[in-house]
Amino acid sequence: MFNKLTRRLIIIASLFLLPISFQPLLALDVGTATIPGIEKVNINSADISQLSMIKGIGSKKAQAIIDYRTANGDFTALEDLTKVKGIGQSTLKKILPFLTL
């Protein structure tokens, strides 16, 4: 039905188009999405290792959160994290999906 040249062209075209069909999967940004089944971190009880696992919070920010919590008591709203040195509105927006009170 197809000659050799046509078959080769179809195979080559398929090889080039295959990676393009997976582009939407590669573009998924899981860093800012709430992922079902992932347990949120309670900022009033989390230790440094739990806080550090959140993308956008390193060990220094995690320690700053714990220090603030120790000095001022439990957080009453997630937005109170902006009172912690090193956490602004931009960082808060990125980490909110992974936090709870």
Description:
It is a single chain. It contains five helices and two strands. The protein has 101 residues and is mainly alpha-helical. The protein has a domain at 41-100: AF1531-like domain (DNA polymerase, domain 1, Orthogonal Bundle), CATH 1.10.150.280. It is rod-shaped.
The coarse silhouette is rod-shaped
- Name the CATH architecture of the domain at 41-100: Orthogonal Bundle
CATH topology of the domain at 41-100: DNA polymerase, domain 1
Number of strands: 2
What is the spatial order of strands in the main beta sheet? Answer: 1-2
DSSP summary: helix tally: 5
Order of helices and strands: HHEHHHE
CATH homologous superfamily identity of the domain at 41-100: AF1531-like domain
Main CATH class of the domain at 41-100: Mainly Alpha
**Helix/strand class:** mainly alpha
Mean pLDDT: 80
| pLDDT < 50 runs, ≥5 residues | 26-34
Q: Could you tell me the radius of gyration in angstroms? A: 23 Å
Topology of this protein?
Blueprint: H1 4-21, H2 23-26, E1 41-42, H3 48-52, H4 59-72, H5 89-95, E2 99-100
Parallel strand pairs: 1-2
Task: Quickly describe the structure.
With 101 residues, this protein is mainly α.
Question: What attributes characterize this protein structure?
Answer:
DNA polymerase, domain 1, mainly alpha, two-stranded parallel ribbon, 101 residues, 5 helices
